[in-house]
């Protein structure tokens, strides 16, 4: 009986953890460039003596859904939408290099080019990009940032630098606790994306299917309730067995 209770308990735990993943996806349904996290379970046999009848249901996270989100035209010069498998390099809070597809950019009061979450955008050399005071800013399709200095004409347009946009396959990246992507293998150097790597005046929305996530949440809730019911039934059967043993004694 304890084996059945163990299997039901680990299954309930995995269902509860999967609900957390779905809830996180729902919370980011309006986050620009967000990629839905995937969740699944697998059977893991507990090693030990005796028959291999004790199975642990384990939650696994096979990565994220790399499908593109909805494209939204904004017309804003600092809004960019990255091409498939292209990622914008930013500086995380701990100073490390991380990647995002949130192309909603802004310039701080001290001239730093940052994302909507305040992460500094990195240039090709891996340094935070600073933009001098300008009356006009233009981002090229290859990530080049150009400006027209304040009080000058169009003929004075100057290149400030080029944003670091890397080309990475989904399996090369893993999501960190801060929501930013990082290299799955720290020893691998992701290459700079060549050619036209982005479009300006557009933003990529989240690829979370809100309706599908709600259905999945309901399914996980019912699955959790079923597993808890199995645990309660097993406990009731154990109590009944104990009573029969006492009566028989």
From TrEMBL:
Keywords: Bacterial flagellum, Cell projection, Cilium, Flagellum. Residues 200-244 form the Flagellar basal-body/hook protein C-terminal domain. Its main location: other. Pfam families: Flg_bb_rod, Flg_bbr_C, LlgE_F_G_D1. InterPro entries: Flag_bb_rod_N, Flagellar_FlgE/F/G, Flg_bb/hook_C_dom, FlgE/F/G-like, LlgE_F_G-like_D1. One of its GO terms (biological process) is bacterial-type flagellum-dependent swarming motility. It is found in: Bacterial flagellum basal body. Residues 5-35 form the Flagellar basal body rod protein N-terminal domain. GO terms for cellular component: bacterial-type flagellum basal body, rod. Residues 86-146 form the Flagellar hook protein FlgE/F/G-like D1 domain. The keyword Endoplasmic reticulum does not apply. The basal body constitutes a major portion of the flagellar organelle and consists of five rings (E,L,P,S, and M) mounted on a central rod. The rod consists of about 26 subunits of FlgG in the distal portion, and FlgB, FlgC and FlgF are thought to build up the proximal portion of the rod with about 6 subunits each. PANTHER family: FLAGELLAR BASAL-BODY ROD PROTEIN FLGF, FLAGELLAR PROTEIN. Belongs to the flagella basal body rod proteins family. This is Flagellar basal-body rod protein FlgF.
């Amino acid at each position: 009986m304890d084996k059945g209770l163990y299997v039901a308990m680990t299954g309930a735990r995995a269902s509860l953890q999967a609900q957390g993943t779905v809830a996180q996806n729902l919370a980011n349904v309006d986050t620009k460039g967000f990629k839905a996290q995937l969740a699944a379970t697998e059977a893991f046999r507990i090693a030990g003596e005796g028959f291999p009848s004790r199975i642990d249901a384990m939650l696994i996270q096979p990565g994220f859904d790399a499908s593109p989100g909805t494209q939204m035209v904004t017309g804003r010069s600092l809004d960019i939408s990255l091409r498939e498998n292209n990622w914008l390099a930013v500086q995380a809070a701990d100073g490390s290099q991380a990647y995002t597809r949130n192309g909603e950019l802004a310039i701080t009061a001290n001239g730093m080019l940052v994302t909507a979450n305040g992460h500094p955008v990195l240039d090709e050399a891996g340094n935070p990009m600073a933009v001098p005071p300008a009356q006009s800013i233009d981002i090229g399709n290859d990530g080049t940032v150009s400006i027209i200095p304040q009080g000058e004409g169009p003929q004075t347009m100057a290149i400030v630098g080029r944003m670091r946009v890397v080309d990475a396959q989904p399996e090369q990246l893993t999501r960190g606790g801060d929501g930013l992507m990082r290299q799955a293998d720290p020893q691998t150097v992701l290459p700079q994306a060549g050619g036209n790597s982005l479009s300006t005046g557009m933003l990529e929305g989240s690829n979370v299917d809100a309706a599908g996530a709600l259905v999945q949440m309901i399914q996980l809730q019912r699955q959790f309730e079923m597993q808890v019911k199995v645990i309660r039934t097993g406990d009731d059967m154990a109590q009944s067995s104990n009573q029969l043993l006492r009566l028989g004694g």
